């Protein structure tokens, strides 16, 4: 590839062409013209590389913007033929609703007598026993830092008649509802639904799979302990009993979250740990069943559509009504809301509900969230929907595999395939890669080279390698990069330390200042011998960009939301990082990057939450940020800081 | 990024005598952590033929009077079986130390090869070479997973070391042992024989046919006979250990018949998972023979520098052998350090490095996506192994190009070198 | 019309009766009904045909012409198979569902493993090998019972002589007897198996107890299974026992209120006439120990909490019914185990590459017990014996697992057999764990429903009576406990990919090969460019 070339080169190229054509005819060596042609092409591309980069960047970011657009997505459809959603008559009737109400009354009595979780569990177990369902309890205790969370799960198993009991479906309800991320809102109606279902489902002989009913304590912790025990996975900070009652392989799970008195819509929550999504067939069949069997409209999350509910303000009022009321704009706004919510869950790898814990064990699970409202639906509707959904999953002959695992749900019945959103992030990462490679190859040309005409510079082309490796201080740069990642490891250690979690108010600014100054101190400490050969910072930038682009493109395949976050935070900033002559400028830019890199330390509770999720649910977001993201940004900061 | 790191001359001023024990100690500390127990399940770090779990299983069965070769899991050589049941420790701290020693000795042998090639007793570069062998992730991760391929590598290096020091018998003995435990290593027999009748000194820059520099090839015939003798002896020993001949199809047969389709970093497993049954034998034959097609051309082309030929064949092995893990390509990459004269002539080192980087990130991720998370299917991992094969191929081609290109030397302005 | 029909029937019956008298054949039928703690009702049909003074065929005479067979009551179709393959003892069971030992205790017929199970003792000798006869046997039975027993091939066949000892006797021909055993957990049992089963009965399902075998109701039960048992006793002769067990749930059909049952409610049939060939035809009802109930009609005999009816004498149509006063309540601890020990077997781990087999055996007695533990595992799942670990109440214990016999699996051909004696300390929980690795199959070896996974056969635990004199001497028929079957999901390749994979891999190899040889063969030239 070529350095930015003088305008004369272009003319020499023009002049050369006829000569080349001529010499090809009479040339002794056919490869000569071939080489010329190749170089012409290469230089043509390299001279316009910046243009290519720019277009790639713009396309990528634009693509990100139009992801919520209604024109991009398509309607959902059922892929697995065995499911046959909504093809059955449901038997759930008012008698069962009455049973649910009775259970609710007893549970409320328990709540008012503020019983311990053990008493609760035993009560529920006895209820199961009264119904003739084998049931048992499980005690567990998590220890994080110096706090210990413990509780008691209770679960019952309805053995399927005439089936070997090697397969199972789970219906679960956590004691705490997800509203307010388990801030204490109780999920009493969810629990009583499970109890009523236990009595109801047992009365039919058509189940081909065992039905496991789990009432988990707490919000996330209880179910995590139960699943860990069920699958025999061990965790250092978890003490959980063995499960007395075995069952088969779990394929699907429905988690019921019914906090309010009654509900208007059923909301789907589906994001799991580390951004793992359930198979789309589960969502789609539930959506269809709820709409056509239960007659309950379905939402993604709890987002009411401002088109159906004019009282909700979709867009700020200062926008002209013509725009605000435009259907396309409205649907864009609505879908954008969903997409952003989805990104906020997936990028941080957080489960959007108890269902998310199932995913790590290859169980497709969703949470049915009964959106609290004054009506019109209640136990009757939710019971029918769950029964019919169970009948559908009961039809499964194989593990759900037909439909998509990678998708963006823009609406309850609209989604984006991976092919229609992935390119955005990939394009940006490609742009960064080109940028890096270009800088890398430009580094071959050191300043002290005399300006030579295009042709001869062309001939330097293969030649340049011979002194490239003499000019690029690769070892030093790699040492710096490794050092930054070690720095990240220390940062992670600091953040996960007991001391940090105890007094974050003091700790976070302290950690920030320390880790902001460490690189400076080290740089001052180091013997700054003038690197005569090639710019250290340029090489660092080249490799940094290559590394970042690789990370982005690979993350995009696993967790698109995270990749999107990275493209926003790193795409442009890393590309524009540059050193300058004046130290003041360099220092300021460095500070900007530091804020970008470890500024999150000031969002204390967010940080603590991430750490908690790492320690209890082993969600990779916190280590990823510390070990990958921060070092990459810091490298960009060093690019600015390093002398020219 | 190892190969891009390699491309710059050594900045190490550490004294080898000091640095080497330091590195080895660091490695030992690593292997004494909990890592081995976590990594030993990983398919990319150890193939069914080199897996630590299978080795332990075989030892257990052998100790409890069950013929380990009567089943399908144990495919290690009887020599390993006898060694680990008698003198060598197979569990606990002992094994960690043993495996670390394996890599350390390998690194030492590599340094010896370098010295022999340069005809020097010590150099600035030694520490760098040792470091790049001991801390090459492709090499130390399989070692942490206690894959026996670490020993294969060490033996490979030792046989090359003895060969370049001109100690024929030792070299052939080690080589025959190596071929016993990993038959496909037979590839480097030819270059080793050549190396024994010539010298390891780099003649890449000044190629000339061996015939001109009066080398008597008759000697190599005798050496071959010697090798065969050693090999038969080892075979008989194995037969004595087991007491029957079932072990031959179980161990050597596996490398050609591919009975175990556990995914690894190579190209064979998915190919033969998806292969139609009636074509299976044909393609097995093609793939096995394909490996051997490289010996003659490379040995003829680089007859003036057999060590380099051996190096290239190791690269071929790492790319195309039947049950590879990360450690075979790792050996190839780490051996690049002893050919510094090539660096100026590499074709696209940065591309190769980036390919390797992508592959080494993609493979573990896609493997867990397929097998643990269940969201991706087998094609994901297959694709990543294809990328890995590309990166190995690219590295190979870089080295061959450089090895040939170096003979023409620096270009003046206005001239360029091409192939026609 | 009807009269004439009756007349003909009478003639036929009297004829056959006289025949029975003449030949040494005897047919007895019995039905046992028992109410279980959780309100379910277990009914066991047993039809026993005895061929007096006959001994099984000696395999060494297989080449020669066999003595001609004349049966009147004894099922000819079965008899021919037995003679053809010189089978001494044969046990075939086809079950649907998981027998819940904890709730229901030991079954009347021990063979309750999920799916199909076939095991046979055959004399070894003569020119036809045991395995060859075994193959013929399973194919013949597959044809006879419309079950896919043909797939009980060598990939599933083992010979666990310790856990499956002959229930009868083995004739002493001076040649050893060999056992062959195979299970097919994924086999479904339904009407198409019952019809041929009924055909083997002398009275079919026309009369006698067999007339209660109504497929519509039997296959709605919570658990049902049929069995064919052939064995030989020196003093009696060859005995064929056909059994049918079912566990039905009156509580479910009465919407969770009553546990009352009657022939009508259980089988939707009554016994209208007796089977004239049957020597004895008895119905036994286990009377409940607690609660006030009424049983009618009045039983012929009542002793030891058992009411028995003699179908021959009692007036027909016979519809035995048991009624409780008051609604049914689940007693507390209705699912507390009542067997001396209970077993829990699971395959842990959600990875498709490896997992962990975990077996928990709880000894409910306060005395030490010894059980023979048998795993027969297809090669799909391979054991890592060196990871075998046994904990008793959480503490690691050695020496609890003795007499280990292990035959490792061979990929694509042979299953693993893993057998040993577990010593259960009094009233404690023994936890056995072992790592396993899951094989990766060729894409042609996967089932059509590949994503479902593979069913693994149940493990079998057999109690060893600890006799004072020798620990090996045992009761001929020990209670066997079958653990639940397992479902293991194998990693699947993409089944639509073969061509793509071949193309991609080959072109990549060709590319590298090509460029290497390019470099090696083409010569370098220096070109002047300017």
TrEMBL record, chain A:
Q: Which UniProt keywords apply?
A: Membrane, Transmembrane, Transmembrane helix
Q: Which GO terms describe its cellular component?
A: GPI-anchor transamidase complex
Which biological process, per GO, is one annotated for this protein? attachment of GPI anchor to protein
Q: Which one Pfam family would you cite for this protein?
A: Gaa1
InterPro entries attached to this UniProt entry: Gaa1
Ranges annotated as spanning the membrane: 49-67, 418-437, 474-500, 506-526, 547-571, 583-603, 615-634
Q: What is this protein called?
A: Gaa1-domain-containing protein
Tell me what organism the protein belongs to: Collybia nuda
UniProtKB/TrEMBL annotation, chain B:
Q: Provide the family line.
A: Belongs to the PIGU family.
Q: Where does it sit, as one GO cellular component term? A: GPI-anchor transamidase complex
Supply the alphabetized keyword list.
Answer: Endoplasmic reticulum, GPI-anchor biosynthesis, Membrane, Transmembrane, Transmembrane helix
Subcellular location field: Endoplasmic reticulum membrane
Q: Which GO terms describe its biological process?
A: attachment of GPI anchor to protein; GPI anchor biosynthetic process
**Mind telling me which residue stretches traverse the membrane in this protein?**
12-30, 128-148, 168-201, 222-248, 282-300, 307-326, 346-366
Q: What is this protein called?
A: PIG-U-domain-containing protein
**Keyword Transmembrane helix attributed:** yes
The pathway noted for it is: Glycolipid biosynthesis; glycosylphosphatidylinositol-anchor biosynthesis
**PANTHER family in the record, alphabetically?**
GPI TRANSAMIDASE COMPONENT PIG-U, PHOSPHATIDYLINOSITOL GLYCAN ANCHOR BIOSYNTHESIS CLASS U PROTEIN
Q: How does it sit in the membrane?
A: Multi-pass membrane protein
Highest taxon in the source lineage = Eukaryota
UniProtKB/TrEMBL annotation, chain C:
One cellular component (GO) term of this entry: GPI-anchor transamidase complex
Q: Enumerate the Pfam families for this protein.
A: Gpi16 (PF04113)
Question: One of this protein's GO BP terms?
Answer: attachment of GPI anchor to protein
Kindly state which keywords UniProt assigns to this record, in alphabetical order. Membrane, Signal, Transmembrane, Transmembrane helix
| Signal peptide segment | 1-24
Annotated transmembrane regions? 499-520
The domain of life is Eukaryota
Q: What is the recorded name of this protein?
A: GPI transamidase component PIG-T
Organism annotation: Collybia nuda
Lineage start: Eukaryota, Fungi, Dikarya, Basidiomycota, Agaricomycotina
């Amino acid at each position: 590839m070529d350095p930015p070339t003088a305008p004369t080169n272009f003319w020499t190229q023009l002049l050369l062409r006829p000569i080349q054509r001529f010499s090809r005819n009479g040339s002794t060596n056919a490869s000569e013209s071939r080489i010329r042609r190749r170089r012409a092409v290469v230089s043509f591309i390299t001279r316009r590389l910046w243009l290519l980069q720019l277009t790639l960047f713009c396309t990528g970011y634009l693509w990100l913007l139009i992801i919520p657009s209604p024109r991009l997505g398509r309607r959902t459809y059922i892929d697995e033929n065995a499911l046959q959603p909504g093809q059955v008559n449901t038997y759930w009737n008012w008698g069962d609703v009455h049973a649910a109400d009775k259970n609710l009354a007893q549970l409320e009595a328990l709540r008012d007598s503020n019983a311990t979780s053990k008493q609760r569990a035993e009560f529920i177990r006895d209820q199961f026993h009264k119904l003739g369902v084998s049931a048992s309890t499980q005690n567990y205790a998590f220890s994080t830092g110096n706090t210990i969370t413990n509780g008691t799960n209770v679960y019952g198993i309805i053995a399927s008649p005439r089936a070997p009991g090697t397969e199972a479906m789970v219906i679960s309800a956590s004691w705490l509802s997800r509203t307010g991320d388990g801030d204490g809102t109780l999920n009493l109606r969810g629990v009583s639904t499970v109890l009523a279902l236990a009595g109801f489902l047992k009365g039919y002989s058509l189940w081909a799979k065992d039905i496991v009913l789990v009432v988990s304590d707490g919000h996330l912790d209880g179910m995590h302990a139960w699943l860990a025990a069920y699958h025999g996975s061990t965790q250092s900070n978890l003490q959980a009993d063995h499960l007395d009652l075995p069952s088969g392989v779990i394929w699907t799970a429905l988690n019921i979250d019914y906090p309010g008195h009654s509900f208007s819509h059923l909301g789907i929550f589906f994001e799991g740990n580390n951004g793992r999504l359930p198979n789309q067939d589960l969502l789609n069949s539930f959506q269809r069943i709820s709409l056509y069997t239960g007659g309950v409209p379905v939402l993604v999350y709890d987002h009411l559509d401002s088109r159906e509910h004019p009282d909700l303000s979709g867009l700020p009022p200062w926008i002209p009504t013509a725009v605000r009321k435009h259907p396309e704009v409205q649907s864009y706004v609505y879908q954008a809301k969903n997409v952003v919510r989805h990104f906020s869950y997936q990028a941080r790898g957080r489960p959007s509900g108890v269902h998310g814990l199932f995913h790590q064990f290859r169980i497709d699970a969703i949470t049915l969230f009964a959106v609290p409202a004054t009506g019109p639906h209640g136990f009757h509707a939710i019971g029918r929907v769950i029964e019919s959904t169970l009948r559908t999953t009961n039809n499964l002959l194989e593990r759900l595999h037909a439909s998509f695992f990678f998708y963006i749900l823009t609406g309850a019945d609209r989604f984006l395939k991976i092919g229609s959103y992935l390119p955005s992030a990939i394009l940006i990462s490609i742009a960064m890669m080109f940028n890096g490679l270009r800088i890398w190859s430009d580094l071959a040309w050191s300043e002290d080279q005399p300006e030579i005409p295009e042709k001869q510079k062309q001939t330097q082309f293969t030649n340049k390698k011979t002194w490239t490796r003499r000019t690029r201080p690769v070892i030093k740069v790699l040492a710096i990069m490794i050092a930054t990642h070690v720095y990240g490891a220390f940062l992670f250690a600091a953040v996960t330390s007991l001391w940090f979690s105890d007094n974050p108010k003091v700790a976070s600014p302290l950690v920030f200042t320390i880790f902001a100054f460490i690189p400076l101190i080290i740089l001052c400490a180091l013997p700054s011998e003038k690197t005569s050969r090639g710019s250290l910072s340029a090489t660092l930038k080249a490799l940094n960009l290559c590394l970042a682009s690789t990370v982005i493109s690979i993350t995009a395949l696993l967790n698109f939301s995270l990749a999107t976050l990275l493209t926003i935070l790193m795409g442009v900033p890393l590309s524009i990082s540059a050193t300058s002559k004046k130290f003041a400028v360099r220092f300021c830019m460095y500070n900007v990057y530091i804020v970008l890199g470890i500024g999150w330390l000031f969002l204390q509770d967010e940080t603590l939450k991430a750490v908690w999720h790492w320690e209890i649910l082993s969600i990779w977001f916190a280590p990823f940020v510390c070990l990958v993201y921060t070092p990459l940004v810091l490298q960009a900061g060093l690019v600015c800081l390093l002398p020219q | 990024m190892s190969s891009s790191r390699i491309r710059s001359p050594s900045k190490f001023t550490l004294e080898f005598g000091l640095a080497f024990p330091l590195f080895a100690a660091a490695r030992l500390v690593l292997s004494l952590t909990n890592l081995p127990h976590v990594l030993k399940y990983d398919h990319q770090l150890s193939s069914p033929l080199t897996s630590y779990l299978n080795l332990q299983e075989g030892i257990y069965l052998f100790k409890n009077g069950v013929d380990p070769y009567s089943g399908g899991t144990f495919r290690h050589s009887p020599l390993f079986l006898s060694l680990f049941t008698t003198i060598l420790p197979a569990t606990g701290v002992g094994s960690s130390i043993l495996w670390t020693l394996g890599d350390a000795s390998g690194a030492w042998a590599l340094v010896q090869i370098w010295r022999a090639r340069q005809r020097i007793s010590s150099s600035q570069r030694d520490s760098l070479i040792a470091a790049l062998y001991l801390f090459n992730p492709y090499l130390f991760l399989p070692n942490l997973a206690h894959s026996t391929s670490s020993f294969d590598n060490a033996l490979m290096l030792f046989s090359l070391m003895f060969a370049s020091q001109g100690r024929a018998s030792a070299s052939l003995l080690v080589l025959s042992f190596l071929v016993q435990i990993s038959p496909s290593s037979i590839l480097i027999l030819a270059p080793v024989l050549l190396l024994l009748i010539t010298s390891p000194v780099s003649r890449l820059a000044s190629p000339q046919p061996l015939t001109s520099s009066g080398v008597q090839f008759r000697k190599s015939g005798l050496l071959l006979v010697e090798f065969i003798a050693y090999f038969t002896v080892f075979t008989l020993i194995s037969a004595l250990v087991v007491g029957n001949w079932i072990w031959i199809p179980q161990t050597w047969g596996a490398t050609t018949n591919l009975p175990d389709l556990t995914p690894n970093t190579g190209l064979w497993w998915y190919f033969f998972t998806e292969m139609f049954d009636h074509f299976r034998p044909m393609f097995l034959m093609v793939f096995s023979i394909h490996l051997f097609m490289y010996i003659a051309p490379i040995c003829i082309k680089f007859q003036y520098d057999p060590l380099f030929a051996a190096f290239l064949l190791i690269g071929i092995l790492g790319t195309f052998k039947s049950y590879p893990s990360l450690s075979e390509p790792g050996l190839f990459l780490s051996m690049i350090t002893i050919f510094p004269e090539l660096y100026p002539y590499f074709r696209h080192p940065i591309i190769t490095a980036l390919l390797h980087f992508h592959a080494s990130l993609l493979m573990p991720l896609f493997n867990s996506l397929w097998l643990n998370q269940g969201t991706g299917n087998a094609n994901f991992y297959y694709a990543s192994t294809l990328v890995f094969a590309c990166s190995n191929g690219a590295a190979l081609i870089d080295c061959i190009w450089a090895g040939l290109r170096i003979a023409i030397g620096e270009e003046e302005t206005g001239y360029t070198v091409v192939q026609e | 019309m009807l009269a004439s029909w009756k007349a003909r029937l009478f003639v036929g019956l009297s004829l056959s009766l006289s025949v029975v008298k003449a030949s040494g054949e005897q047919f007895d039928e019995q039905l046992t009904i028992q109410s279980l703690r959780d309100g379910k009702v277990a009914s066991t049909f047993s039809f026993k045909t005895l061929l007096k003074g006959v001994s099984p065929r000696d395999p060494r005479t297989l080449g020669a012409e066999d003595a001609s067979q004349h049966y009147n009551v004894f099922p000819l179709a079965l008899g021919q198979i037995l003679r053809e393959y010189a089978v001494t003892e044969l046990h075939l069971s086809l079950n649907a569902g998981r027998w819940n030992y904890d709730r229901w205790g030991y079954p009347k017929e021990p063979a309750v493993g999920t799916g199909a199970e076939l095991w046979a003792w055959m004399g070894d000798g003569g020119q036809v090998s045991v395995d060859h006869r075994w193959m013929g046997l399973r194919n013949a039975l597959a044809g006879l019972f419309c079950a896919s027993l043909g797939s009980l091939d060598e990939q599933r066949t083992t010979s666990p002589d310790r856990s499956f000892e002959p229930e009868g006797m083995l004739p002493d021909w001076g040649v050893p007897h060999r056992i062959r055993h195979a299970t097919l957990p994924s086999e479904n049992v339904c009407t198409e198996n019952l019809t041929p089963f009924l055909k083997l009965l002398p009275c079919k399902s026309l009369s006698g107890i067999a007339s209660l075998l109504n497929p519509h109701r039997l296959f709605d039960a919570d658990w049902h299974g049929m069995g064919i048992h052939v064995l030989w006793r020196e003093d009696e002769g060859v005995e064929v026992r056909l059994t049918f067990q079912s566990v039905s749930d009156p509580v479910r059909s009465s919407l969770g209120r009553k546990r009352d049952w009657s022939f009508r409610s259980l089988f939707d049939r009554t016994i209208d006439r007796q089977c004239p060939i049957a020597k004895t035809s008895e119905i036994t009802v286990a009377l409940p120990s607690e609660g006030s109930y009424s049983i009618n009609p009045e039983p012929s005999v009542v002793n030891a909490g058992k009411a028995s009816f003699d179908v021959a004498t009692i007036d027909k149509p016979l519809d035995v019914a048991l009624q409780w006063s008051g609604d049914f309540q689940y007693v507390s601890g209705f699912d507390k185990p009542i067997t001396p020990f209970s077993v829990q077997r699971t395959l842990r781990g959600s990875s498709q590459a490896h997992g962990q087999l975990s077996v928990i055996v709880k000894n409910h007695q306060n005395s030490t017990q010894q059980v023979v533990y048998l795993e027969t595992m297809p090669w799909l799942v391979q054991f890592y014996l060196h990871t075998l670990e046994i904990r008793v109440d959480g503490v690691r214990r050695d020496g609890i697992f003795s007499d280990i016999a292990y035959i490792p699996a061979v990929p694509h051909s042979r299953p693993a057999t893993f057998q040993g004696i577990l010593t259960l300390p009094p009233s404690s929980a023994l936890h056995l764990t072992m790592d396993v690795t899951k094989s990766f199959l060729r894409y042609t070896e996967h089932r059509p429903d590949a994503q479902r996974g593979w069913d693994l056969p149940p493990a079998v635990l057999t109690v060893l009576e600890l006799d004072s004199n020798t620990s090996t001497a045992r009761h001929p028929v020990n209670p066997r406990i079958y653990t639940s079957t397992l479902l293991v999901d194998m990693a699947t390749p993409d089944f639509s990919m073969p061509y793509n994979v071949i193309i991609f891999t080959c072109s990549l190899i060709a590319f590298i090969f090509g460029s290497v040889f390019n470099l090696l063969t083409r010569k370098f030239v220096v070109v002047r460019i300017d």
